Amino acid sequence: MNYLTLLALATSAAAAAAQKHATPSLWLAGDSTTALHDTSEGVQGWGVVIGQYLQGITMQNLAVSGTSARTYAREGYFYNLVQQVVKGDYVVIEFGHNDGGVDAELAEYPRADLSGESLTDSQTVTLANGTVEVVMNSLFDQVTEGMVDQVLAKGATPIISSTTPDNPYNSSTITINAELATQFVKYAADAAADAAAAKGVPYVDHFNAVMSLYAKLGPTVVNSYYPNDHTHTNIAGATKVAWTFINGLKCAAADGVLATYVKSTWEGAGARCSHP
Question: What is the similarity comment for this entry (predicted)?
């Protein structure tokens, strides 16, 4: 079953909006940078620690390591999430780290987007399990916007969040790595902003909020947050990344979402608000 079919099923499920709960839930849809990790891995997702900055809302972290927007939909994770969402809930949608790839690998690397600018181009691929899938240009945007539609249909509030950056420091002698601008994570961050604008829903510029903080902290501190690779943070880094998400809620594009639930004692990280 492909991602388009599952999003269609999610639409049907969303049409039957469940009764509003006394305490709303904040659902997180994302990849390993958000997800729960075993302590033996030495890394942790920001979604695990964000609850310390919130009150009066129940955390539901359904992020899944290794997923892209495409596979999170295709493998039924979003279908499972949206079936549990009720009126008054909030759903954060943040993908991008696993969505890049090259066209020749769309079957072998079945998480990737199709490159190119045309909105009509597509490529039909057969996955290893025999599933035939039509992968379209701007797939990342389309799947993200499709998820937004399902959340809205449940009477809940979608929040599109740009993906967190990889560690922007190459070494102790280089500042912010300009190569980030050419990576898919940067494209995904920009695409998330476009999707939020297209749908008129709250947007958190998580990418630039983290980049702003990292520029202030410098390479020694930031490198200490990445014990295994350039993508996954340890618990200290995850706490900072969660901190920047909360701070990003202060920006105008977030439209005041979740303000009621943010603890008054938290200290902001100086988010870069790209949409004043």
Answer: Belongs to the 'GDSL' lipolytic enzyme family.
